[in-house]
Amino acid sequence: MSALRRKLGDEYQVVSTSASGAGLPPPRSAPRGKRQRFVDKNGRCNVQHGNLGGETSRYLSDLFTTLVDLKWRWNLFIFILTYTVAWLFMASMWWVIAYMRGDLNKAHDDSYTPCVANVYNFPSAFLFFIETEATIGYGYRYITDKCPEGIILFLFQSILGSIVDAFLIGCMFIKMSQPKKRAETLMFSEHAAISMRDGKLTLMFRVGNLRNSHMVSAQIRCKLLKSRQTPEGEFLPLDQLELDVGFSTGADQLFLVSPLTICHVIDSKSPFYDLSQRSMHTEQFEIVVILEGIVETTGMTCQARTSYTEDEVLWGHRFFPVISLEEGFFKVDYSQFHATFEVPTPPYSVKEQEEMLLMSSPLIPPAVSNSKERNNSVECLDGLDEVGSKLPSKLQKITGRDDFPKKLLRMSSTTSEKAYSMGDLPMKLQRISSVPGNSEEKLGSKTTKMMSDPMSQSVAELPPKLQKLSGGGGRMEGNLPPKLRKMNSDRFT
Fold first, then answer.
1. What pLDDT band is residue 310 in, cutting at 50, 70 and 90?
2. What count of Cα atoms within 13 Å lies in the side-chain half-sphere of residue 404?
3. Region (Disordered) spans which residues (predicted)?
4. How many domains does the chain have?
5. Which residues in 213-244 are b (16+ Cβ under 10 Å) and which e?
6. Are residues 241 and 275 part of one domain?
7. Of the residues 143, 177, 211, which one is the last residue of a structural domain?
8. pTM assigned to the model
């Protein structure tokens, strides 16, 4: 534990893990009942179709897919039943031919040629069919050239046997090579976590590949299933919303060699914009995760699914690191795949954080508004200039010289500069300037007087010798040597 705290810091607290290394969530204050999930943790969808009526015939129109989708016990039962019925039917056909020709009652001597040699009863007819169907050919039973109906039945048996073999063996092969089994070696974390990452509140979960063979073009998607009611009053029990896990940046395209942490940034566009730690106790939602990719060994498309309910989302947690550098390779410790630890996370939603930040932000300074007004005045004068250039020549002469808009621009800029400078003056000067009848010279003199007061106070605080040199608050040029006075006079002229 001490080594772990040195690695992660003292402010982090590791969640207790089970024997398998899976992180357990902190105990809830009010445990809920078992939620009905839309998608199980193993990816199976809890949906049953009922009251199909006459639509059940559609399953027979796609019989091959129907057989592939059946469970293994039903597939094996249909496989054995189909071959058993086909074999018994064809053996009965050979027995009927032998019975109709009288091959079963007559003694087989050298002068008699039966339809099938050495077929005396039903077992012998069944053995002949098996030898023909399996192309064993022991050489004891065979078709003679005196039986045209046997030749026709043999051709029918060969065609029918090939169709049954292709259908059932193909069905079993597709069933065994289905990529669903490949999805079982793709792992998802048992819990999802919400914490800060790169300064943003982020929903995270982990995915890993247990095999050395890669998933080509692996892509991950997330759906949020949540009930809601539209403004028109329509109730949607399982409304599906998309959770962005990097579609805009390409982060949803995974290079799934080692376990990856999939992130969904919670912002104003996220469905979790209003979600906080307090509201998670009352919310009901389910996050469905879909991972798709091409199996490298077979080239077939594989899909793995899982889901997280609101009870399986841990607020203020982060996943434990599982990759370490060894001598010449990177080692993945899957015993810590599900483990999480607590990190400091604000309990507020992103919406509440933005509102608090907006309330605590300072007001806009007047200089910005003055600059905006100045820009607006310049734009207006530009428009006046354009209008003046479009006037007739007589009106242009009446308005004055061609530089009339430029004069307005100088006057407006001077006025705006004065207004801008007035905003920076002290309150006393602003009141004096606002009194009617005060000219700019009076304002300038009062300003100069006020600016000179601190100078006089600072000179009064000097030692007596320096006050004599300064001449009672004036410049010290009178007591300077002639050379320095000449240099100063030359510099100021």
1. very high
2. 14
3. 434-493
4. 2
5. ebbeebebebbbbbeeeeeeeeeeeeeeeebb
6. yes
7. 177
8. 0.58
- The model's pLDDT over 70-85, given as tens digits with 9 standing for 90+, comes to 888 998 999 999 999 9
| CA end-to-end span of the chain | 80
What pLDDT, on the 0 to 100 scale, is given for residue 9? Answer: 47
Distance CA 202, CA 263 (A): 6
Cβ contacts of residue 136 below 8 Å, gap of 6+? 130
Query: Cβ–Cβ contacts within 10 Å for residue 402, how many?
Result: 10
Asked whether the beta carbons of 261 and 220 are under 8 A apart, the reply is no
- Classified as helix, coil or strand, 479 is coil
Residue 424 pLDDT greater than 90, yes or no: no
**Residue-wise over 411-430: b if at least 16 C-beta within 10 A, else e?**
eeeeebeeebeeeeeeeeee
Residue 428 has pLDDT above 80, yes or no: no
Phi first, then psi, for residue 469 (nearest 5°) are: -65, -35
In this structure, the answer to whether residues 351 and 234 fall within a common structural domain is yes
Query: CA 9 to CA 352: how far, in whole Å?
Result: 28
Answer for the pair 399, 384: CB distance below 8 angstroms, yes or no: no
Question: Of the ranges 53-67, 196-210, 449-463, which one carries the lowest mean pLDDT score?
Answer: 449-463
In which domain, by residue range, is 109 found?
66-177
Distance CA 226, CA 237 (A): 7
Which of the four pLDDT bands, split at 50, 70 and 90, describes residue 470?
Answer: very low
Sign of CA dihedral 162, 167, 171, 174: positive
Mean pLDDT of 249-277: 92
The residue-averaged pLDDT of 197-221 equals 92
Q: Which residue has the tokens 């376990």?
A: 259
Query: Quick one: pLDDT band at residue 195, thresholds 50, 70, 90?
Result: very high
The two tokens of residue 436 are 């009617």
Burial class (CB in 10 A: 0-12, 13-18, 19+), 186: buried
Contact 8, 339 (CB under 8 A): no
